């Protein structure tokens, strides 16, 4: 498996946001996640895709 799964705190650290913010984004469907047991995990590729989708080009 080349696409590493990150915990919410690990993914939040990569995005430089608080884990609570990422939990809200997950609950609102702003970012895809994987549910394993009772844990929500985010693939590293989803973080890259999320950043790409939310990149704003200069005007």
Characterize this entry briefly.
This is DNA binding domain-containing protein, excisionase family. By secondary structure, the protein is an alpha+beta fold.
What does this protein structure show overall?
This is DNA binding domain-containing protein, excisionase family. Residues 5-54 form the Helix-turn-helix domain. GO terms for molecular function: DNA binding. Pfam families: HTH_17 (PF12728). The protein has one domain. By secondary structure, it is α+β, with helices and mostly antiparallel strands. The protein starts with a strand and ends in a 6-residue tail after the last helix. A hairpin with a 2-residue loop joins β2 (34-36) and β3 (39-43). The chain has helices at residues 8-15, 19-27, 44-53, and strands at residues 5-7, 34-36, 39-43. Strands 1-3-2 form a three-stranded antiparallel β-sheet. Helices cover 46% and strands 19% of the residues. It contains three helices and three strands. The relative contact order is 0.22.
Structural class: alpha+beta
Total strands: 3
Continuous helix count:
3
Strand fraction: 15-25%
- Could you give the distance between the termini? 39 Å
Organism: Alkalispirochaeta americana
Domain Helix-turn-helix: 5-54
GO molecular function, one term: DNA binding
Pfam families: HTH_17
Draw up the topology in text.
Layout: E1 5-7, H1 8-15, H2 19-27, E2 34-36, E3 39-43, H3 44-53
Antiparallel strand pairs: 1-3, 2-3
């Amino acid at each position: 498996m080349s696409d590493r799964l990150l915990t919410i705190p690990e993914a939040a650290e990569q995005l430089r946001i608080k884990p609570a913010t990422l939990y809200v984004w997950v609950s609102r469907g702003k970012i895809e996640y994987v549910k394993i047991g009772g844990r929500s995990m985010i693939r590293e590729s989803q973080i890259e895709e999320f950043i790409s989708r939310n990149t704003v080009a200069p005007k």
